[in-house]
Design brief:
Shape: globular
CATH architecture: 3-Layer(aba) Sandwich
Helix content: 10-25%
Strand order of the largest sheet: 1-2-3-5-8
Structural class: alpha+beta
Radius of gyration: 17 Å
Number of helices: 3
């Protein structure tokens, strides 16, 4: 952003774009969004809305998201590797009543490439990937763990709908 003095940190700008990405995906998927305040490890919740006749209501099906973004994740043909702090890893591998997933937005290293806009489109470069760590093994690391996320698990509207559909059937992501 030439000529503009940035007030918030680069990490906060990345976080803001990650939230916007997840909210846009939820909107396209037809899911309601909740944002916990204060945030104790869950950045956003997605909720399924049912329709009966002409009345819509919260169906009680929820998916919690831990949102992260990075410009430095190693990417192979099959996986994106993300270094996650152990505290968050342990939280996500637990089995709370509301399922949780990790959503990682990849951004280009060059901040000028993150977002572009014209009168016809708004483009956020690269994409986010998701993984459920529910039931993952305990680790002995004390600071971080490298989490391989399959590149087939793009966090898209179709993926969000698919995950919520599984939750509605009593399954997990």
């Amino acid at each position: 952003m030439e000529g503009a003095a940035s007030v918030i940190t680069r990490n906060h700008r990345q976080e803001s774009l990650c939230r916007a990405y997840a909210q846009a995906i939820a909107g396209r998927a037809g899911l309601a969004v909740t944002v916990p305040s204060p945030d104790y490890g869950i950045d956003m919740g997605l909720r399924f809305v049912e329709e009966q006749g002409q009345v819509r209501f919260d169906a009680g099906v929820q998916l919690d998201l831990q949102l992260r973004s990075t410009t430095r994740a190693p990417v192979s043909d099959t996986h994106v590797s993300f270094d996650l702090d152990v505290r968050t890893y342990d939280s996500l591998r637990g089995t709370p009543p509301v399922p949780r997933i990790l959503v990682v937005l990849l951004l280009p290293e060059d901040e000028d490439q993150w977002l572009s806009q014209t009168q016809d489109e708004l483009i956020l470069r690269h994409c986010a990937y998701w993984i459920s760590l529910r039931g993952a093994a305990a680790i002995s690391a004390t600071s971080s763990v490298r989490v391989p996320i399959p590149r087939s698990q793009v966090f898209s509207a179709q993926a969000a709908q698919g995950i919520v559909d599984r939750l509605r059937r009593g399954e997990f992501p």
